[in-house]
Design a protein that fits this description.
Elements (H helix, E strand, L loop, with lengths): L1 E2 L4 E4 L2 E3 L11 E3 L4 E4 L2 E3 L5 E3 L5 E5 L2 E4 L4 E3 L2 E5 L2 E4 L4 E5 L9 E4 L2 E4 L7 E3 L7 E5 L20 E5 L1
Parallel strand pairs: 1-4, 2-5, 3-6, 4-7, 5-8, 6-9, 7-10, 8-11, 9-12, 10-13, 11-14, 12-15, 13-16, 14-17, 17-18
Length: about 160
């Protein structure tokens, strides 16, 4: 599903890409500004949620997002608030590509990260671009999260975990 409009409000919607683990398979792509997802579920594997807009602001509130590799990615400014992020494989949660013009990228506030049975090595993210910015504030993490939190993609980005 691709949302290419401003001022969009999605409530209690499930968006699923059931292509299985075939590589990149986006469930939801957002390109507009002031998009609000409330009580939504985004289900997929690799690249589940593509926050694609370069000057987009997205608010993800009380949602459920699951995936395998880089399943939350893109250049948008996104506030994830009180949401559950479920990791289905040993891999990376985020791949931010924050642009130079955006002061913020992905901000996770009061979120809960969970991991499927057998998942033991999950990174919070890796930068998709050298100006990537991702912050985790007061979030709950499973033991599967790697102690270093981040893995470089041969780029440098700004990352923080604040509890």
């Amino acid at each position: 599903m691709s949302v290419q409009a401003d001022d969009v409000y999605l409530d209690c919607l499930t968006v699923e890409n059931d292509a299985a683990r075939v590589g990149q398979a986006v469930a939801l792509e957002t390109r507009g500004d002031r998009i609000h997802l409330y009580h939504c579920a985004l289900i997929g594997d690799q690249d589940t949620f593509f926050a694609r807009g370069y000057v987009s602001r997205v608010h993800v509130e009380n949602c459920y997002i699951e995936g395998t590799t880089d399943f939350i990615f893109g250049p948008s400014i996104v506030l994830f608030e009180c949401s559950t992020i479920h990791c289905k494989a040993d891999s990376f949660i985020t791949a931010a590509s924050t642009t130079e013009r955006n002061e913020y990228g992905f901000v996770f506030s009061c979120c809960r990260v969970t991991a499927a049975e057998g998942v033991t090595r999950v990174y919070l993210g890796r930068p998709w671009k050298s100006t990537a910015r991702t912050v985790w504030l007061e979030c709950e993490f499973p033991a599967a999260i790697r102690p270093e939190g981040w893995r470089d993609w041969r780029l440098s980005g700004s990352y923080a975990i604040l509890s």
